[in-house]
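Need a sequence for this fold. Nothing fancy.
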């Protein structure tokens, strides 16, 4: 049987950690057990207790990292059998962690084509460039053959989604506790010690230094409520002018009963799938997470029975790329004994 050592696990963990994660919290941690299995656990110190009370986004983020690990192992020719432990909610394995999955090394595997796109995928939070007609045709064909994706395009549908996203975002941003948690994961000054490592920094948010300083000040203080009472709240969170420049919005949906880990694995494959076609993506998780918004989406864009909306992504060509801001590999692996 294949066995991997601690140094190799750290390299694989860094590859896996190129996956998207909510607010760039990077909750996935990896460990080798005494049988040579790879364990995946969620680091609960990176859970968003206000924005993600059920831990679903944390599970999706761990699932995406798991898919990254499976691809990284396959690139080394190693196959795995996955035991999904998310539903068991195992919190007593090690203080501060939720055990998510066990991977048993199982024979040989072929590298997947999607693995070549992990370094090219990124979140683009600004206006998109117009897509060429042949690029749009490629996207349409891909969506047509992809069971868990529905495409919304054309001015009316994009304007509907853009307005709903702004309304839903404002309703959650009105909660001070949500804003405080968001600001805690924002790195709005290049001097922030975690600027290059996690959370949302100026480059990821496409903000200048002044804009960043202003955003931090407004979001973290009663200024937001004052501006909101003056009718300015919407313009503080408005993304509609950018949303409308997308070539399409992609509704990603999965079976309702599916574990967040499995949905997260599929989410990463979905994102890499359109990256391959030359599109960048920008999620609007609020359209899936806020029940009223998700219901409004479902009314307008019916999903297959028994499926739930996982996320909605604006997609289009981006004028430039965004670098990866990630934790060092050594922070992603746990050693045998609790610290
Ligand atoms: C479950 C989930 C939900 C997300 N929701 C949003 C969102 O609502 N808005 C957003 O701008 N990015 C969202 N993202 C993208 C992450 O912020 C992004 O993946 C992370 O910052 C890392 O950056 P990268 O995608 O450029 O590698 C989400 C990612 C995941 C996995």
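Here you go.
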């Amino acid at each position: 049987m294949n066995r991997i050592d601690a140094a190799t696990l750290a390299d694989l963990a860094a590859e896996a950690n190129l996956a998207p994660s909510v607010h760039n919290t990077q909750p996935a941690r990896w460990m080798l057990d005494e049988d040579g299995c790879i364990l995946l656990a969620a680091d609960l110190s990176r859970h968003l207790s206000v924005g993600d009370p059920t831990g679903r986004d944390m599970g999706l983020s761990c699932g995406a990292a798991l898919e990254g690990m499976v691809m990284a192992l396959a690139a080394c020719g190693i196959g795995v059998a996955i035991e999904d432990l998310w539903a068991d909610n195992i919190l007593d394995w090690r203080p501060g962690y939720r055990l998510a999955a066990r991977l048993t090394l199982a024979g040989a595997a072929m590298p997947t084509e999607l693995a070549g796109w992990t370094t090219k995928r990124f979140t683009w939070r600004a206006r998109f460039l117009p897509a060429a007609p042949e690029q749009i045709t490629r996207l349409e064909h891909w969506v047509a053959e992809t069971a868990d994706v529905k495409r919304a395009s054309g001015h009316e549908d994009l304007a509907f989604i853009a307005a709903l996203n702004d309304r839903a975002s404002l309703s959650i941003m009105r909660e001070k506790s949500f804003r405080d948690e968001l600001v805690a994961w924002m790195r709005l000054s290049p001097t922030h010690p975690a600027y290059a490592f996690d959370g949302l920094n100026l480059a990821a948010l496409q903000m200048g230094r002044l804009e960043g300083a202003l955003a931090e000040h407004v979001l973290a203080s009663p200024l937001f409520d004052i501006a909101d009472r003056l009718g300015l709240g919407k313009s503080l969170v408005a993304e509609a002018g950018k949303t409308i420049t997308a070539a399409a919005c992609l509704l990603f949906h999965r079976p309702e009963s599916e574990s967040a880990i499995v949905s997260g694995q599929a989410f990463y494959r979905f994102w890499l799938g359109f990256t391959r076609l030359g599109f960048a993506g920008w999620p609007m998780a609020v359209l899936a997470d806020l029940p009223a918004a998700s219901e409004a989406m479902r009314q307008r864009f019916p999903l297959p029975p028994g499926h739930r909306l996982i996320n909605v992504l604006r997609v289009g060509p981006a004028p430039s790329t965004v670098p990866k801001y990630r934790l060092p590999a050594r922070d992603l692996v746990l050693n045998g004994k609790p610290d």
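For context: The CA atoms of residues 50 and 97 lie 18 Å apart.
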